[in-house]
Amino acid sequence: MNDRTTLSAVAFLRGFAVIAVVLYHYSWFVHPLESTILRKGYIGVDIFFIISGFLACHTTRKIKGSLSSLLKYILSRLIRIYPAYFIITIGYVITQKTLFSTYPDFSVLVKSLLFFPQSDSGSPVYGSPVVDVGWTLNYEFFFT
């Protein structure tokens, strides 16, 4: 199997995972769907983690194992992910403060921006960050 075929299969799995997660979340809002197979859509998150691990290995397979290579890899991930996450998190905090006069404690915001778990409240989220769906990024950066 060549790289193009492998990455096409990964793209297909990523599409499946997206649809599964969207349907899972949708099933929470539509009454007759709560007991259907759609509630198993959370499996899409597991697929995303598997894909992420595969791509981390695939994209770094020819890189020399050195500290400088590791730092370059981490920096490239941060540059790709962090700006959007930062903007969304700060935007969410500003919106909450403006519309509802609520905002998180400063320590919660800092932990969220640094991808640190909020608490030891248990898996999978260990205390959600300011933007709830960011819990997966905590794992991504922990295992990177």
Describe this structure as you would to a colleague.
The chain has 5 helices and no strands. The longest helix has 34 residues. The chain has 2 domains: 62 residues; 81 residues, no CATH class. Helices cover 65% and strands 0% of the residues. It is flat. With 144 residues, the chain is mainly α. Keywords: Acyltransferase, Membrane, Transferase, Transmembrane, Transmembrane helix.
Q: What is the first-to-last residue Cα distance?
A: 26 Å
What is the assembly state of the chains in this entry?
A: single chain
Structural class: mainly alpha
Which blocks of ≥5 consecutive residues have pLDDT under 50?
A: none
Helical content (DSSP H or I, runs of 4+): 55-70%
Provide the succession of SSEs: HHHHH
Q: Main sheet?
A: none
Characterize the overall form. Answer: flat
Number of domains: 2
Number of strands: 0
Give the DSSP E fraction (strand runs of 2 or more residues). under 5%
Pfam families: Acyl_transf_3
Keywords: Acyltransferase, Membrane, Transferase, Transmembrane, Transmembrane helix
GO molecular function: acyltransferase activity
Transmembrane segments: 7-29, 41-57, 78-95
